[in-house]
């Protein structure tokens, strides 16, 4: 299996499922439907004083969709606390195809010209599904997540799925809810402007109430317009994602 068909992959996300591999060298993938689901309420991002200071300082140059493949590769690399990952060649190829179709995005943090961390995920309607994030410099993933939340808020997204809760995500405002509650939220977001219909039937998570496309999409570029406006007003070091003070304002 070289990749997952994009239509099948998006249909799975619309029904609360996502694929994973058991290890980076595992040639196969399986569908996952967690019993408990982590989400980060977009109005509940925890912006600590220390993180706000880092964001406003523009220590990192933040970009989006400029190094999607490199971001996936960085997330897939082993680390001291993570000797292997679930990102195998099938996952890489599948999400690169989604990126080419406009259904996947990355947020990159650069430090001294090097990719220092960031994240990537899937966009479907006004739901964003975070897949993986990574830091190779202190606070890089936190800054990337802050920029993502600001971008989703500016663009009209309604749901940020984090899949599994971790202490790191919880410290930033993520919460854990039962899968049934998650599906209710997901279906509500996707059905905003879309017709309800039978699901495509992928795995155990498929349900007759799953919404059918087309879905009303969020505007990924809305935040860039705010950043361009800030640059016009003379903001220093605008780098393709708005200056940190714009991000901080959106998060507070």
Lateral strand order in the biggest sheet: 4-5-6-7-8-3-9
DSSP summary: helix tally: 9
What is the string of SSEs from the N terminus onward? HEEEHEHHEEEHEHEHHH
Question: What is the CA–CA distance across the termini?
Answer: 45 Å
Helical content stands at 25-40%
Morphology: globular
Secondary-structure content class = alpha+beta
Uncertain spans, ≥5 residues at pLDDT below 50?
Answer: 195-208, 233-239
Biggest sheet descriptor: 7 strands, mixed
Spatial extent as radius of gyration: 18 Å
Total number of strands: 9
Q: What percent strand?
A: 15-25%
**Overall pLDDT:** 89
Task: Describe the structure using short key phrases.
two-stranded antiparallel sheet; 9 helices; 20% strand; 252 residues; single chain; alpha+beta
What report would you give on this structure?
It contains nine helices and nine strands. A seven-stranded mixed sheet has the order 4-5-6-7-8-3-9, sandwiched between helices. Helix 2 (49-56) packs antiparallel against helix 9 and helix 5 packs across helix 9. By secondary structure, it is of the alpha+beta class. A hairpin with a 2-residue loop joins strand 6 (114-124) and strand 7 (127-135). Mean pLDDT is 89; it is low at 195-208 and 233-239. The chain has helices at residues 6-14, 49-56, 68-76, 89-100, 140-155, 167-171, 179-190, 222-232, 244-251, and strands spanning 18-20, 30-32, 36-39, 61-64, 104-111, 114-124, 127-135, 159-163, 175-178. The radius of gyration is 18 Å and the shape is globular.
